[in-house]
């Protein structure tokens, strides 16, 4: 409780200083960090008082869910949210007969990266392929805004089959030749 009171006092100080100091940007950043900490602590207390099913219903709301994600309070893990998003994307891509598989959520230099395998896509149209990637990326980033990037991979392409057709019939030397009619 004392830490929250200290945070409130520091917020009041920063608001007063913002107009009086040339280092407004630094103060504003500190103000935002402190407000985030304050609101995060409040949300943590609220969700701690609620039954899990109520928290899950709140998390399903876009705004509340994103606030819970922002403060690391969402009841579903990042991987669970991405899995649900890929299920929804799979339904949207059903006409392309595409299948999706979550390969990994990896830490990268610029943030976490999601790798998704896209298999069985029927259309060879490049614009359809780009549209499928956009559906996947939008679904993942909506469900997990903390993700920095989505990488869609495809399995190696099967080599085209070489079709061998029978050639013209061979002549048997024992069979007499027929003259062509004109």
UniProtKB/TrEMBL annotation:
Database matches in InterPro entries: FSCA_dom_sf, NIF_FeS_clus_asmbl_NifU_C
GO molecular function, one term: iron-sulfur cluster binding
A Pfam family this chain is assigned to: NifU
Span of domain NIF system FeS cluster assembly NifU C-terminal: 82-150
Compositionally biased intervals (Basic and acidic residues): 169-182
GO BP terms: iron-sulfur cluster assembly
Function recorded in the entry: May be involved in the formation or repair of [Fe-S] clusters present in iron-sulfur proteins.
Protein's UniProt name: Thioredoxin
Organism: Streptomyces poonensis
């Amino acid at each position: 409780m004392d830490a929250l009171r200290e945070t409130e006092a520091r917020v009041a100080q920063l608001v007063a200083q913002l107009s009086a100091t040339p280092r407004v940007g630094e103060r504003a950043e500190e103000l935002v960090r402190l407000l985030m900490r304050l609101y995060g602590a409040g949300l943590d207390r609220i969700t701690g008082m609620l039954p899990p099913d109520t928290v899950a219903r709140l998390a399903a709301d876009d705004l509340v869910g994103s606030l819970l994600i922002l403060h690391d309070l969402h009841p579903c893990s990042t991987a669970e949210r991405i899995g649900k998003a890929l299920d929804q994307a799979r339904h949207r891509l059903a006409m392309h007969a595409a299948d999706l598989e979550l390969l990994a959520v990896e830490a990268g230099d610029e943030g976490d990266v999601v790798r998704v395998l896209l298999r069985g896509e029927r259309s060879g149209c490049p614009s359809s392929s780009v549209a499928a990637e956009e559906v996947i990326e939008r679904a993942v980033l909506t469900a997990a805004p903390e993700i920095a990037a989505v990488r869609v991979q495809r399995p190696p392409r099967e080599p085209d089959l070489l079709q061998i057709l029978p050639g013209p019939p061979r002549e048997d030397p024992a069979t007499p030749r027929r003259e062509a009619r004109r």
